[in-house]
Amino acid sequence: MLDLGRSLLAAVSRAPDALSLVEGDTRLSYAQLYRRASALVAGLEDAGVRHGDRILTALQNNRAAVWLHWACQLAGVTVVPVNWRASADEIDFFLENSEASLVVCDAASRDAVAASRRAMNVPRMACGCDLDGAVSVEEAAAASAPDAPAMAGPEDWSIMLYTSGTTARPKGVPRRHRTERAAAVAHVAQNLMPRGDVTLGVMPLYHTMGVRSLLAMHLLDGAFICLPRFDAAWALRLIEKERIGSLYLVPTLYHDLLDHPDFPGTDLGHVRRLGFAGASMTDGLLKRVGAAFRPDLLVNHYGSSEVYTFSIDQNAAAKPGSAGKAGLNQDLRIVEMGSGDPERVVATGVEGEIIATLAGDEAFEGYWRRPEADAKSLIDGWYFTGDSGRFDADGDLFVTGRVDDMIITGGENVSPVEVESCLSMHEGVAECAVVGLPDERWGKIVTAFVKRRGDVTAEALDQFCRASDLAGFKRPRRFVFVAELPKSPVGKLLRRHLISGDYAPEQSSSQQAAR
Q1: AMP-binding enzyme C-terminal domain: which residues (predicted)?
Q2: Which of 39, 111, 332, 434 is the most buried (most CB within 10 A)?
């Protein structure tokens, strides 16, 4: 299998003049991208970075992030991208844990890197800002340098992503060139992307969705249109101006696009392929997205940083809630929850924990120096996802939530996702999230947090649930109207914040109980 450095060289050979990268007024062909990546290979070497080393990048989706990603692939250096919003303490942790030998910041992360104690002890590079002692990424990329050869092989490490760390310190997920390339090839195939495609590069390059978008475009001689941070109006302008063909976003961002006042006037004619991942899309939003874009393909991609693809559904609107069947490089099982045994497979229709084979080409091999995490999640050649789900009679997978998110009320299991999908169909619900809150009698009561559209009441939502197919014990017993739902930087719902009370209530609203 080709490594990623040679994959870039192949694209440069095939289409040297094709558009590869856009950020603002910067428009680079493949030949120009390669020149800048080659210069940065020399720049990293001048900074003492060698084959097998790791560099930490805290960058928005800008040209420097793309140049450095490809420079690392050529040089056999592992790129360790982290959230550009990270604090100084978090930068300290990432540097210590990854043992990175260089750190790169931009204007958004400069202050945190400047305040990081560990960052003071390694070489530093900066993009679009001044930092004492730091080499300018732009100057290094513009320097004269020989064309860089591909110095890595398929077995070399390409990237180390960090998990979100919702309950503990983030876990490093190192991935080899071969697994990264296999995931990108699968992404191209599963989304039916054509050569010369154009995508919006808005999912962060510290997130598996962002990395996949970048690699897929450059396997196809296509263009990666950088959007440093999400802004709905800016995104809509780029979709129209750059004739975006494929969008790959978390559901939250589709919601924000559809709700923006510029959406109705935006030319969406070139957007033919839509994909979503990172979270379940409610039935209501799925219906709206399909009607608004009318794409040729609407793909639900279910996966993770550890194993890029678990399953895909290439016609998500036809069976709302379905995550489809195992991806090209995958095999899935559903086993008894809490069993830790890949042979305890449950029957069709029965809910259990979703596990994925580690024999697939896209799978990682274990967490970075976290043997206790490996022992919990990697068992007898299978990755225990921590997600709950079931297969229906057609063999399609339905992801019902996180095992830890399951609400047990009065001895009955309630999936938050199922309740959210029901509520999302009400025209008065803009967004919603469901959690279990402590209750003396029931243990947990089903509670719906709703960002409403208009003046819908708790009573109206309760009546809507009663008239639906939702089982009585699954109905929310409490509704809380909120100004916004708490989300991560990539748009994932943060249920733990709702449980702890860390959310923005709707002004003058209060909790309302359903009878």
Answers
A1: 418-492
A2: 434
